[in-house]
Amino acid sequence: MMISILDQFEQGVESRIKIVPTSKQLLDESFDKDSDLQRVPILSKKKVNFSPNDKIAQLLVSNEYVVLVMVNNVLLRINLKQDNIEEIDTLKTSSLKVKQLFLDPFGEHLLISCGNISSSQLFYATKQLSKLKPVGKYQGSEITSVAWNYDYKVKSTSSTTGPILLGNSSGAIIETQLGTEFDRFFQGSVVQYWKEVFDISKGQPIPIIGLQYHRVGKSDLFYILAITPTKLYQFIDFIFNKDERPMLQQIFNNYLTIPGYIVKFENKKVIFPKYFGFLTELGVFVAEIDINKDEKTIFSSHELIEYSRLYGRDDDDFTVPLSMTFTRYHVLLLFPERVIAVSLVAPADRNASQVMDEDYCSDSYGRLLNITKDLMTGTIWLYAERAVFRYKINKEDRHVWKVYLDKGMFEEAKEICINNPHRINQVLVRQAEHFFNSKQYENSALIYANLNVSFEEIVLKFLHLNEKKPIKLFLMKKLYGLNSQDYTKITMITLWLIELFANELAVLRNYKQGKLQEYTTLQESFKQFLSISIIQDCIRKNWESIYDILASHGDVSFMIWLALENQDYKRVIQHYLNEENIAEALTLLDNHPFSELFYTFSSDLVEKAPAQTVSILIKQGQKLDPLKVINALIIPNPNERLAMEIIRYLEYSIHCLNCHAESVHNYLISLYIKYNKDKLMNYLKLQGREITAVSYSPEFALRLCREHQLGEACVQLSIVLGLWEAAVDLALTISVDLAKTTASLPNNNIELSKKLWLKIAQYVVKQNNDIEQAMRFLEECKFIKIEDILPFFPDFVTIDHFKDAVCSSLEVYNKDIQNLKEEMEDATKSAEVIRSEILSFRNGYMLIQPSNECSSCHEQLMTKAFYTFPCSHCFHAECLIKEMQPYVDSSIINTIKDLQNQLSTLYQNNKDISQSLEAINRRDKVKESLDKLLASECFFCGDIMISLIDKPFIEDAVFEKIKQEWE
């Protein structure tokens, strides 16, 4: 009985006679920090806790399912997952002897080849079937090999094998499909079909000792390998109808008349077996599967691991191994007394041993029979006549990476060392050195940049080269590996690279005609380098150094490009100004409208290109602050052309940008006064006469206008300042009409207007001494009468000159007197009407019915004290106060309540009939005061309700709440 076969191995490792392998020559322990690993063997076996009753003849393991056949024909099947042993002894009484077992890779199907001297027979069983089934009535040659179906879809239905190939001892290849599901339909047969598809014997029977077929990934391409003791056969083709039976005959049909061919297949993503190998008399034949049209074979390379050279020396007295199996990097060879692990990769030194480990076995369990591998789990099994062992493979790549490294197979070495930083660093160092020594400097530089080695040492290696591209690649790769915190290193490498690029460009510029394309390519590469994010901050902080480098090589165009890329427009514009390239400066300013640039350069640009500069300023609109622009446009003594352009911008700021800054307006006035006096008066008139409305300083403007003797403007400014008399006096020095216009302006101040007109009248009379003109002046002014100007005339003037004027004045006075009389009569009549209405109102009355209700609470009116109004609205006194309370001042409400309290107190204290006259008068006064507050007007018809006409029915504070309730 076997207990926990998978887990309960014997604790003690089988004692071993360990010979120190000469493969130590491959290793230098100082080269590898994993020195402790050298003491751990690659091969470590443990005996399975299983004691058979008889000697073991054969053992197969697939998918943790073990099948053993004993020498007495007893068949054991063990499910390692369930620790279950099943014994099948149906062949004990048979004359047939079990020759070979064939177990599919999923552990589902089992074929048993049996025979004796006269006949052979084939039996079939499944994992669920305990009884062996004969495969038809097959009595032909012994089955010596089986090519199983590796399709996982077939594995999921364990009742059928899918299409498989059988090879027999005569050289025939048979295609068949077996399964228990056919048993019901074909009278006990487990065979769906049976077809001989190829014969490689060519009339001379030769056994097929190995047979495999595989599908290449998920494609329709299949290949078949068949091995005889002397030859290897290969077949390959597409199968387009996988439902056809027999299926694989479609491949063999192409090889019936021709030796064979290989079709093209280039899909590199599919997965299929990578290697295959078999034992020969001289060594292990190992080949790498690579379906290639040019090579006309399914394997691209092969190698013979000679038995005579396993230990690095010629040994003619070698032993051919009994069996073999593969691991990832080794082939395990079974000899009668030991198992050795031979590296699949031959060492660079031909005299070095290819044996990486040896495991000696004692003969206490009988002779060793075979070593096999579970293809699904990768476990290695060794069995002797009376014991079963399981191997554990420990770090088998420990030597292989060094072998790859010594052979210069760096990519393979890196694949093995990917998780070992120490090893991978050594591989990269050797690879970089290899590239450098073989003059592949660029590849060497890229690798060195990723290594943690001395920066100075590597730089010195590349500095000695005439070619500068390798050191550039090294520096750039190194730069990409730095963190933003390594600012000093980033700065140093960046400046160095800029120097290298600039130097290369300078050299090529000398040969620009012949190397234009190379120059352009290098320049683009330089631009891409400068646009890398990691160095952008470095560039911004080291502008001056970078410009100095570029300037030292005379690369002005690149300096401009770099400045533009990094938005250093200030530097570019300054460069254009220095070069007197005003057009380029203006274009740049127009295309990159940064406000600070305008404030900085407007002064220089407007002097050299006034019209273009002002047009660009106007184009910016509200993006610019007019005050800051004007600071740049304040130029001492500008020429007329420049001044007119400045005026154009100032007018735009005022009229389009609504600029009201006093300094802007004052500057415009000063320019108007000096260069465009015609526009000054229009501007002043547009600004108006109110001093609070004008945007300029009237005092400043008046002072400038006086200095330049601009009389009319001075008149206008005096009006703005309210200096009316001075304005009229100044206007009279210009023209009487201007004075008249000025005097007619203050219409709201009659006294001032009269005073101003008198000034004009006095000037007209005294200066001109023209009585007729004075009379016409009286007609123009309605404020002045003949009697006002008479004192201005000389004494010798006779009354005849004023007869018409005096008569006209008297007529006016007579009309005024008549109008006053009519107004007095109208007022008298109106007073009488009002007096009669008051008398009639005193005698008026209203009839109050018992059914009348309060207009507020709608209860019976006469139950409480009430007020009634001519409009027929009636209110209880309390209701009227309540209605008025929200709409009158709190002080009035408090006064009403205080009067009510006083009145209530007076009524309670004076209930005696013999009330004093003083108390009655006091009560009447209080009641009169209360009535004035409450009954002065109807609440519904009076001023209070009228003032509420624009008040919303729903207050804003509760509107949203009511809206949500209705929703």
UniProtKB/TrEMBL annotation:
Query: CHCR repeats at which positions?
Result: 617-773
Q: How does it sit in the membrane?
A: Peripheral membrane protein
GO CC, alphabetical: HOPS complex; late endosome membrane
Q: Which UniProt keywords apply?
A: Coiled coil, Membrane, Metal-binding, Zinc, Zinc-finger
Main localisation: membrane
Q: Where is the Pep3/Vps18 beta-propeller domain?
A: 41-393
SUPFAM superfamilies, from UniProt? RING/U-box
Where in or outside the cell it occurs: the entry states: Late endosome membrane
Q: Coiled-coil segments, which residues?
A: 803-837
Q: Name one GO biological process term.
A: endosome organization
Residue ranges annotated for the Pep3/Vps18 RING C-terminal domain, each copy included: 849-946
Q: List, in alphabetical order, the Gene Ontology terms for molecular function in this entry.
A: protein-macromolecule adaptor activity; zinc ion binding
Q: Can you name this protein?
A: Vacuolar protein sorting-associated protein 18 homolog
Q: Which organism is it from?
A: Aphis craccivora (Cowpea aphid)
